[in-house]
Amino acid sequence: MPERKKLLLRLDPQVYDAVAKWAADDLRSVNAQIEFALRQALRAAGRKPKPVPEPEADDATE
């Protein structure tokens, strides 16, 4: 899996509180909720990123 990018994000406190409540309702972290919302917005705008291919597992047994 590629390394995840780090980002400093400044939010209005009311926006943060709303996202934090939404995250808690969905049993997600605030970070995961922001990524979820961004992915939804990208999909709605027709800009969904291409999935990163998973490395093939070595199924050989000895």
UniProtKB/TrEMBL annotation:
Gene Ontology terms: biological process: regulation of DNA-templated transcription
Top-level taxonomic group: Bacteria
Name of the molecule in the record: Arc-like DNA binding domain-containing protein
